[in-house]
Amino acid sequence: MGMKPSPYATKIPYEEKDNKVVGGRPNPADRSDAIDKVTGRARYAADYNLPGQLIGKVLRSPHAHAIVKSIDTSEAEKLPGVKAVVTRDDFPDMEVEHAASGELMVNFRDVTRNMMAREKALYDGHPVAAVAALSESIAKEAMKLIKVDYEVLPHVIDVRDAMKDDAPLLHEELFTKGAGIEPDPSKKSNIATRMESKLGDIEEGFKQADFIVEHESNTKAAHQGYIEPQASVANFTEGGTIEVYTGTQGHHVFRAQIAKLLKMDISKIKVVPAELGGGFGGKNNVYLEPLAAQLSRKANRPVKMVMTRDEVFRATGPTSGTNCKVRMGCTRDGRITAAQAELNYQAGAFPGSSLPLASITVFTRYDLENVLVVGHDVVCNRPKVAAYRAPGAPMIAFAVETAIDDLARQCGMDPIDFRLKNAAKQGTQTHFGPPLGQIGYMETLEAAKASPHMNEPLGPNQGRGIASGFWFTIGNDTSATINISEDGTASLIFGTVDVTGGMRSAFAMIVAEELGIPFEKVRTQVGDTSALGFNFMTAGSRGTAAGSMAVVKATRDAIHRACEIAARKWEVETDQVVWENGHARPASANVGDFEPLSLAQLCKEATWFGGTIAGHAEINVAMGGPGFGTHLVDVDVDRQTGLVKVLRYSIFQDAGKAVYPAFIEGQFQGGAVQGIGMALNEEYIYSDKGTMENPGFLDYRVPVASDVPMINTHIVEVPNPDHPYGVRGIGEVPIIPPLAAISNAIHDAVGVRLLDHPMSPPKVLKAIDEAAPAQAAE
Amino acid sequence: MQNLRYEAPETLADATALLAAEDGMARVLAGGTDVIVQMHSDLIEPDLIVDVKNIPELTEIAKEGGAYRFGAAVSGKTLMLHEDFNKTWPGVMDGVRLIGSLQIRGRASVGGNLCNASPAADSVPPMIAAGAVASVIGPNGARDIPVEDIVTGPGQTCLDKSEIVVSFLLPERPPRSGDAYLRFTPRTEMDIAVVGAGVNLTLDDDGACTAARVALAAVAPTPLLVAEAADALIGTKVDETALEALAAAASAACNPIDDKRGTVEYRIKVAGVLARRAAAIALERAGKNQ
Ligand SMILES: Cc1cc2nc3c(=O)[nH]c(=O)nc-3n(C[C@H](O)[C@H](O)[C@H](O)COP(=O)(O)OP(=O)(O)OC[C@H]3O[C@@H](n4cnc5c(N)ncnc54)[C@H](O)[C@@H]3O)c2cc1C
Question: ipTM, 2 decimals?
Fold first, then answer.
């Protein structure tokens, strides 16, 4: 993000055509990954075992903030069965160096400190040592023998507390950087960065307003909640190479990070991405991989490490907890004249929250003249945040979309009409950079307005809420290779890790469409790092959108090769041969009268006419094709317990063009369910010692199936003009609106405004009870 | 955990002898839905596990005259499949049905739920409200203990380390009796009670309440039998005024803590709300049980 778009980035114009395969609904059981996942055959990272492997475990800080004065591992090393112990002394220190790791940036100086504490332990669960032993119980026993001398320091958990002048400081070298802070500050701070973006004249905008609404929201950190805990198996060979089997959203990025952290050549490392049991941005960062590799190097044996759920919660990235202040004004007839926001985002123990992304999304649904957005990236004694599906956006949308709701009410306007009146469209200038291209936001609002959901009757204490969200689609480096087998079937290798499970099928559909062969004749696999050129992570909704650009290019490359073989056989020029319906044909009658040749027939001729048919692509895909969505939710509020029940939920989202509609619907539903869980109950709870109180699924309350209704989905199709199949990223938008939509629905049901997350029963009941006297008086 | 011993005796005498002989940590294992989870999360490291599921007395459901006796290790699912027991004690079954999920109930027992001694155990308040009595056996003989007296604090019971609960006796039911249990959790399943309330009552021919017992969960260090709440119902027609008084008495009996699952203020208020709602269901059930 913030990177200048490269003039060499690849765009392929959208072609409107009748597709035979793309856009269809193949039997979901034909998804190549489906049956294996159901029967338990799919191999996740923890299912990999190497001969002679050891089990590695991590010793973690029980303190939120402490100087690590010394670590004595001698007793642990003497325990029979212990083969290696590593601490900070086993890893080289890193210079400040930034790199993209998914949607967020990382700094290697911090990455090495996060995977293994150096000067200080900065959160409960921060690794301080790791052990490899013959069994898990020996490793656990060994951890008890490691003596760590801590000097416990005062800690700070909440973002507002961390911003105070007298807050305990996490980092000695941290001075606030960024926009609007001159001269350079002389006082250390937990505020790592200040950001600012603006449009027009905010003061003037408020002068024009008839109504002004101010919202201050607070949100707790929420975890991605993937079912599969982090797991890695690493084998450091005598030849000085490393193989790593791991759960990752980006094996090439992990490879580069492991190389950096262990000071090795990238090419000496092979990372094999396992089947992924959920990531949602949480598997964009290395945690165990460098530890397992270094333990393996020391022990001379493969090392397997699997986190417990407790470790996942305490030490892998949740999303930022936030404090957001929003002020918006509009005219009596519902035109927004000014929009201002302050975003204060927890980064966790090291700088680098989702703030840069969140601040792009703040008002990017509306066509505004006067905008001011200020943001702070703030460190505190929590695990370093990681990306979580539309990182940072749900929290600021919570404040903004509820303010929109209140403005609409003040104008006496329907909340959808109010949004339509102010909706962004092609050409709308954003507050952070370029104007918007062809988008489908208005279409989602119109679809919501026209939906049968709007006519469902509501009972007493029931209410309806609406909210919208925006997210972009990133491009970045993408590679793919297609090999046409001797029998004319196709084998695609791609490198955008299939985090959703649907990408393999979506790509098979695209390859089938391009080649003109049946879907069943295409096999698609994720290749390891040795199989392909660099692939950036599956992040920023880019998996299918960007991945398929490389797939299309590689397939067209193979088609070109197939046409070349036909041309050689027919003794004509390659450009005199066209590819149609799975056959090479003469481009016109002038070329000659040749029988069309199928892929299978061409394969038989390939050896003589130059060699195997294959194609490949290594491209930087241009960023583009942002997505917009609108959600409608009906809730029932129990006035005596504060329980909010979701009765009905509908999603209207622009997917560009749907390659595999059933899977898009699944993404819409999954995103919304995560958003509903976050809205109602999910939160990190800390003790006064700064330790996490609920590191497990019993008390970190993600919704269970019976908590949510069937979620209705409506795919809006406004094609992305720069993609051959019109695809937009769709995975992230659906988690953005639920918080605000549910707050709006609660307001509609019982007349109280919740801006304190999560909207759990105690908070809802308190708000109802506090409002009761005033409501009774009315 | 490297020296864990597992035994599955077939008689009560063998079971209590094994427990008595163990110097280290011993744990009785019924369904294991607490024990195994606690072992996995390193909360306990037992030296001896005594599985009691092979002992007939712990796994039977039988009628003794008009009363019901069921084994402490009978699984929730087995109870759910017993039609007459469900008709007789719907409130006890409300509690049993709320434990975990289908898979958990396939193993989880009422004996384990009680002896795990969580203040939030779901089958315990309706068992207390039902007036259930636990038959306990140890190396020195047998004794009967009312269920409300078993739990003495979070994770603590009045049982000696070599004693086991064999079975529960639920008294014969007079006509026009009904019971009910409600719990509050933010989620519909797989959650722990923030508050639970069990009510058991009997009506006379005019619809006046002649007997009642009210028990609460998760509002104090142990499940509570609340006599004042029962008194609010006895002698009334369980009308609006009586229900108000019941709610007030239930709230007043609470001695909760603030924790990750709920606040003091919230638990006190919702205990009254649930007691009232549970009484309304028990009343309706009593009306149907002519
Ligand atoms: C996913 C999940 C969800 C759950 N949800 C709920 C819920 O909603 N509500 C709820 O109340 N509980 C819940 N539980 C907890 C648990 O399932 C119940 O407490 C269950 O009833 C325990 O029964 P058990 O037979 O499995 O006990 P065990 O685990 O076998 O034993 C529990 C304890 O009782 C002791 N014990 C067992 N039987 C005897 C006996 N006969 N005599 C003496 N001591 C004995 C054991 O030594 C142990 O200390 C849940 C557990 C899980 C894992």
Answer: 0.94
